[in-house]
Amino acid sequence: MTPQFVSQRRVEFSDTDMAGIIHFSSYYRYMEEAEHAFFRSLGLSIMLKQADGTVIGWPRVSAACTFEAPARFEDLLEIRVFVERKGVKSLTIRYEFWRDNARIAHGRMKTACCLCRHDAPLISIPIPAEIESRIQECPSENPAPHVDR
Fold it and tell me: Going by C-beta distance under 8 Å and a sequence separation of 6 or more, which residues neighbour residue 14?
């Protein structure tokens, strides 16, 4: 299946460990960057300011990444984005990392749609219609095992 969005990211020296191999934490940053770019491609933002000063945001509920092969300094990675599940109040987005024609990692983040106010607890809300209508589900061809906790 064709991903809904594809971005590219070069592995920078600061993303690697002493052996020049990408540090595991970099994958999480790359997933977040791809998520933000995906939202922008839909004419959305990860932080939508409302007229009353509140913000609709997407805090993480869970994140996971499985590494299949190392990426190294200066590798050009393709990050494929799939909205695996669109719930009433949440999104589960799957990411696949490819170098050339080989998948080297895959990850998943679940986010909750929340109303954010300064100095107040987050409030989980249904995904607003103007956002929900732009985001479609698109499972990937090679899903990773899903683990509910």
Answer: none
In CATH, 5-132 is 3.10.180.10: no
Model confidence pTM above 0.70:
yes
* Letter string b/e over residues 109-138, b meaning 16 or more CB atoms within 10 A of that residue's CB: bbbbbbbbeeeeeeeeeebeeebeeebeeb
- For residue range 63-122, list pLDDT tens digits in order: 999 999 999 999 999 999 999 999 999 999 999 999 999 999 999 999 999 999 888 899
Residue-wise over 23-60: b if at least 16 C-beta within 10 A, else e? eeebbbebbeebbbbbbeeeebebebeeeeebebbbee
Pick from 102, 109, 76: nearest CA to 10: 76
Using pLDDT thresholds of 50, 70 and 90, give the confidence band for residue 3: confident
Residue type, 108: R
107: enclosing H helix or E strand: strand 102-112
The terminus-to-terminus CA distance of the chain in angstroms comes to 28
Domain boundaries of the chain, sorted by first residue: 5-132
Report the C-alpha gap between 80 and 58 in whole angstroms. 20
